[in-house]
Amino acid sequence: MKKVDARGLSCPEPVLLAKAAMDAGEYPFAVLVDDTTPLENIKRFANQNNKTIEVDEAGNEYTITFVK
Amino acid sequence: MKKKNLILVVVTGLALGAAGVGLMLLGNPANMGFCIACFVRDTSGALHLHSAPVVQYARPEIIGLLLGSFIVSLVTKEFKARGGSSPLTRFVLGFFVMITALVFLGCPLRMVLRMAAGDLNAWVGLVGFVLGVYIGTLFLKNGYSLGRTYKKNAVEGAIMPATQVVLLVLLATGSSLLAWSESGPGAARAPMWIALVIALIIGGLAQRSRICQMGGFRDLIMLKDPHLFWGGLAIFVAALVFNLAASTFNLGFQNQPIAHSEHLWNLLAMVGVGLGSALLGGCPMRQLVLTGTGNVDSAITMLGFLVGAAFAHNFGLASGGEKIEEGVRVSGGTTEAGRIAVIVAIVIMLVIGFAYSKKKETAEA
Predict the structure, then answer these.
(1) What is the rounded distance in angstroms from the CA atom of residue B205 to the CA atom of residue B72?
(2) Residue A33 belongs to what H/E stretch?
(3) φ/ψ (deg, to 5) at B42
(4) Ordered per-residue pLDDT tens for chain B, 365 residues
(5) How many domains does one find in chain B?
(6) CB-based contacts of A22, cutoff 8 Å, min separation 6
(7) Scanning A52, B7, B167, B228, which has its CA 20 to 30 A from the CA of B253?
(8) Count of Cβ atoms closer than 10 Å to residue B159 Cβ
(9) Residues in A touching B219 (Cβ below 8 Å)
């Protein structure tokens, strides 16, 4: 599975990276973030685009998997 | 969850709009109830970084905003010391955002408060601001990035909040270490404790909602996402309603408090504020709020604001507002140095935009 590392990047960069991966169309893919702001922004972005996501939290890092 | 976040950003906007007019009615300068650029400039003066006697006061609004965000981020465990994303470049961007804001006479927050008070010059500024943010989105689309932040020692993130506590003690005790304006905008003050409490609440709300006026336009333009934009609109609506209710609404270009009508320079100055804020990833208020959450890059940006404000007054870059002298209206305006500074600022921002867009970072983990 393709993983996009958006850790340490400030918004909107994580959302733009998620968008680029989404536009590439290879599902599933995961976006790694380490802050709640990009987490919320990517959740909102996925919601707006009717994408199904799963979020795994490990410590202060979040893996957002775009299922389809 | 989604709805809750939207309500939060709208409530923050309404609170900001109400506070903007309310603090003005309580004694803050006209159409400047709450302004990040102007108040950081006043604080810069209070710390003797510049010596313009009319704009020196350690504004409790700045202290409260930062500490409100700090306290709430501690409670929600979102406080995290992090930094290292091109700090000196951020300092430079902060420096020039402040200078361009002081040529226009206001940050994006005061721009909206002025718009809601009928000041048409601020609407000209809005055109420039949106244009600046738009240019910023073009860089972002081309891979613009100041790079990653990394985790830092908690002390690093707590330094700026600690300085605000020290400043609060000096302010509350009326310390002679600080400079205090005896006339002009710096002498127009809402009661300190009321201003502090309001700013603490807004700082907390802004931390939770992530409100940002640059972000509002950026996300609308780039992602067709109006989430943050509703917050900016809420500021405008609340301030407009309060201005109409308090009869402080005055439509026109002329006779506007602490403003000037040089349209080209109002526009270009706000292009600088919009572009610089887009390159920084947040408008001045957002930078202060992020500083409160332990973001050291934003703290460096805030130092850029402070030094930029000092330079703006020490080198005569800041514009003068329209004023009445011995019963005669004297129109305000930009200075030649200020106009040159705006051009220099935009050029440097463009250079930074291109320089950090060149290489697309490989995103593979």
Answers:
(1) 8
(2) strand A29-33
(3) -65, -40
(4) 568 899 999 999 999 999 999 999 999 999 999 999 999 999 999 999 999 999 999 999 999 999 999 999 999 999 999 999 999 999 999 999 999 999 999 999 999 999 999 999 999 999 999 999 999 999 999 999 999 999 999 999 999 999 999 999 999 999 999 999 999 999 999 999 999 999 999 999 999 999 999 999 999 999 999 999 999 999 999 999 999 999 999 999 998 999 999 999 999 999 999 999 999 999 999 999 999 999 999 999 999 999 999 999 999 999 988 776 677 767 789 999 999 999 999 999 999 999 999 755 554 44
(5) 1
(6) A29, A49, A51, A66
(7) B228
(8) 13
(9) 12
* CA B25 to chain centroid: 20
Residue B266 distance to chain A (closest CA, Å)? 27
How close A54 comes to chain B (CA, Å)?
Answer: 15
Task: Name every chain A residue with its beta carbon within 8 A of the beta carbon of B227.
Answer: 44
CATH fold for domain A2-66: Translation Initiation Factor IF3 (3.30.110)
Backbone φ, ψ for residue B107 (5° rounding): -85, 180
Residue of B nearest to A7 (CA): B148
Q: Is B233 helix (H, G, I), strand (E, B) or coil?
A: helix
Query: With a CB-CB cutoff of 8 Å, which residues 131-150 of chain B face chain A?
Result: 140-141, 145-146, 148-150
Nearest-angstrom CA–CA distance, B338 and B332: 13
| Alpha carbon separation from B69 to B23, B62, B290, B299 (Å, rounded) | 20, 11, 8, 13
Residue type, B160: M
B288 domain-assigned: yes
Specify if B201 maps to a domain. Answer: yes
Structure tokens at B20: 């903007």
Q: What is the DSSP code (8-state) at residue B48?
A: T
Q: Within a domain: residue B64? A: yes
Return d(Cα B140, Cα B142) in angstroms, integer: 5
CB B294 within 8 A of CB B66: no
Range of the domain at B230: 2-355
Q: Locate tokens 């009869």: which residue?
A: B247
> Which residues on B lie below 8 Å from A17 (Cβ)?
363
